[in-house]
Design a protein that fits this description.
The protein is an alpha/beta fold. The protein has 22 helices and 15 strands. A hairpin with a 5-residue loop joins β6 and β7. α12 packs parallel to α14 and α19 crosses α20. The chain starts with a helix and ends in a 16-residue tail after the last helix.
């Protein structure tokens, strides 16, 4: 029994020792990589020498030119100036001769001893790394930590036993792709075709030649098959040369065409696969898109690169357009928003380079929308708000941080928060109420055996499970509030983390100029990140995520004149889009559709069957009938004659919303504190309204029992 663990420990120790010796000796690095690194270092030194001599030549020429101009103006030079002119001329000649001597860099014939010397240097550094822990343990033991040595020995035994008879794969790492791309002059790839040559007339960049074959159905061969498609060879050669010039792939290698190119008068499209053993991926092509467009004779706006859905990271679709596909805006008509289904079909919000519409489905999706001022965020919010209001299963809560930015929807949304003096407090209460409601919704879902609404779409819009959509325009006005900002941030963190499962959706819009607007715990749980034009790469990264600009995805490269153009990060992929535009007659038609869909009934609807009249009291008083003239007067007073803040009487909008909340509550009644939170008014003010309306019969006319004003029993009176 004891011999078997001992043999296992000895075997594991042997394998560990072999692996450490293999690594410490620098044997994981191939001769080719060392050779390329030496050549790269010499090529960089050669380039630095060339640049230094060019700089000194230019400096000497400038000085000589200056002295010649002085001589022409003054009719001659002083002896000292003549000496300076002579020295400058000689200096320019000397550096010019040095440039001719340096010439073009050529790969030298290296002595193998130089490669061995480089490997010894790597081995020395790695041995020092391995010796550091042993030296530390020894020093600690000498210093008095007697347990350091035995502890290290026990850990070594346990590690050896855990490894056991499983040997390491003592291999050599592949040469990094960036090193191969930076040293294309070192070794030719075996079997590669010669580099194609595409002529350019009059020094102008040549547009890649169009294949003569007819367009075929879009499709591609399985990744890794290497099967080329007939036709489009000229396009393959042009793309390969351009990618090689941009150092995405080594010069002389070729991409593989996986589908017959699609060619129309407006664009050409090719599905290609990058060569194996180069390390090049779609991200490398995207990062080099600017230079790639120049090599192909296209500007950035007319070159489109995207990964093929369902394929590996080497398969991409490259398209060249005759004109910028986002140059012309595209309208969203009222018919496009008719009978919208925000859960299944989605809301049409944007189009891509190929004219395909993007639909936003509010199923497990929250949005962070960012961009500089006047970049087009409002156009996207306008479409989202309109789509939500046209679906009766949605309750829309709109917080406007730059009033009157979204005022046109104020009378149509379920709640509208805009008052600069109260908006932060009102939003904090609204969000905290939704956080509290999540517990009740979780119980409803648990009762039917599911964890999220996505598992039971038929429950969307049922009692207690309406879609609660919170749109916060200019979120910094709320999260940076000195008094209520922390409460708002805390509630947003809760809703972003758990709200989607219960049908609570966040739509957050912000400008990019202010840092720390949203907590990282909020942004990390946002599913869609949509960035409009930004002034810099750092501003773009605040929305799309750290490092996205380095991968070639930065909104500061967009055209600032194209309002609504942006980058969307969704489901791990980045797409270039431009938002649809809703305005004019279509906007008016959409608002009329919303009013008709969410209109209040014009005739009173009994909340419950008639109840027999109670026996008369001794005073003989009869039950007063609802005074509808009073209700009509209140409604007429509350409704503003024309849109605009100046036309709305003080408190009229709040009273109108309070009546709507009471009407929807029906015979169940509503608590005074809950009504105060719903309309954003103090509880004492709401209590005064309820008392007056109850005495005048308005409460009963709206379908609620007269005890509504006394129902505040939650301790918040």
């Amino acid at each position: 029994m004891s011999q078997r663990p001992a043999r296992r420990t000895q075997s594991g120790a042997r394998h560990l020792a072999l692996f450490l010796a293999h690594w410490a000796g620098g044997h994981t690095v191939s001769n080719e990589e060392l050779f390329r690194r030496i050549i790269k270092q010499r090529a960089e030194a050669h380039q630095e020498a060339l640049e230094e001599h060019r700089r000194l030549v230019l400096k000497a020429h400038k000085k000589a030119t200056k002295l010649h101009r002085i001589a022409e103006e003054d009719g001659g030079l002083t002896p000292a100036a003549k000496a300076e002119l002579k020295a400058a001329t000689k200096e320019a000649e000397r550096h010019t001769a040095a440039l001719r001597a340096l010439g073009e860099f050529t790969v030298p014939a290296l002595d193998p001893g130089q490669v061995r010397h480089r490997r010894r240097r790597i081995a020395a550094a790695r041995c020092a790394v391995l010796a550091a822990p042993a030296a530390g343990i020894t020093a600690a033991t000498v210093a008095g930590a007697w347990w350091s040595g035995p502890t290290a020995a026990v850990l070594g035994v346990l590690t050896s036993w855990a490894r056991g008879p499983q040997a390491f794969d003592l291999t050599v790492r592949p040469v990094p792709a960036d090193l191969i791309a930076e040293t294309p002059m070192v070794l030719a790839v075996p079997g590669a075709a010669p580099a194609p040559v595409v002529a350019a007339a009059a020094g102008q960049p040549q547009v890649p030649p169009m294949p003569t074959t007819a367009p075929a159905a879009a499709g591609f061969a399985p990744a890794g098959t290497g099967t080329a498609v007939e036709g489009g060879q000229d396009l393959v050669l042009a793309l390969s040369k351009a990618l090689g010039a941009c150092r995405v792939i080594p010069r002389g290698t070729q991409v593989t065409l996986l589908a017959t190119p699609e060619v129309t008068a407006e664009r050409w499209t090719a599905v290609v696969r990058l060569p194996d053993d180069t390390g090049a991926t779609v991200d490398h092509v995207v990062a080099a898109r600017k230079n790639l467009g120049g090599e192909l004779g296209l500007d950035r706006a007319r070159l489109h690169v995207e990964q093929v859905a369902g394929a590996d990271d080497k398969t991409l679709r490259v398209s060249g357009f005759s004109a910028d596909p986002f140059a012309r805006p595209r309208l969203c008509t009222a018919e496009m928003l008719g009978e919208v289904d925000v859960w299944e079909q989605g809301i049409p919000v944007a189009f891509d380079a190929f004219g395909r519409l993007l639909y936003l489905r509010l199923r497990d999706v929250s949005i962070l929308l960012g961009g500089s001022s006047r970049s087009g965020k409002g156009a996207v919010l306008r479409l989202i708000i309109a789509g939500c209001l046209l679906d009766t299963r949605v309750r829309l809560h709109l917080a406007d941080g730059k009033h009157p930015g979204q005022y046109r929807w104020s009378l149509l949304a379920d709640s509208y928060i805009y008052d600069p003096d109260k908006r932060a407090k009102q939003l904090a209460k609204r969000l905290e109420a939704l956080v509290a409601e999540m517990g009740e919704r979780a119980g409803r879902l648990a009762a039917v055996g599911v964890e999220s609404l996505a598992e039971r779409p038929d429950l969307v819009g049922t009692e207690g499970l309406t879609l609660e959509v919170v749109v916060v325009d200019e979120v910094s006005a709320f999260t940076l509030d000195a008094k209520y900002g922390k409460r708002i941030t805390k509630a947003l963190i809760e809703l972003a983390a758990r709200g989607l499962a219960f049908g609570i959706v966040l739509i957050l819009a912000t400008q990019l100029s202010t840092a720390g607007v949203l907590d990282r715990l909020i942004t990390s749980n946002v599913v869609w990140r949509w960035c409009m034009y930004a002034t810099g790469a750092d501003e773009s990264n605040t929305i799309l995520g750290k490092g996205m600009a380095g991968r070639g995805y930065s909104a500061h490269l967009l055209d600032p004149e194209q309002r609504g153009s942006g980058l969307l990060l969704a489901e791990g992929r980045v797409s270039t889009l431009r938002s649809l535009w809703l305005d004019g007659d279509d906007m008016t038609a959409v608002q009329d559709m919303v009013r008709a869909l969410r209109a209040e009934p014009t005739t009173p609807v009994p909340a419950q069957p008639p109840v027999p009249a109670p026996s008369p009291d001794p005073a003989g008083e009869a039950v007063a009938e609802a005074d509808w003239s009073v209700l009509d007067g209140w409604l007429e007073q509350a409704a503003p004659p024309i849109p605009g803040p100046a036309a709305v009487p003080a408190g009229a909008l709040q009273r109108l919303r309070a009546m709507e909340v009471i009407r929807q509550a029906g015979p169940d009644g509503i608590k005074r504190a809950a009504l105060a939170d719903a309309v954003g008014a103090p509880a004492t003010t709401v209590g005064g309204w309820l008392k007056e309306w109850t005495l005048k019969g308005v409460i009963e006319a709206l379908g609620s029992p007269p005890h509504t004003r006394y129902a505040a029993t939650d301790g918040r009176q």
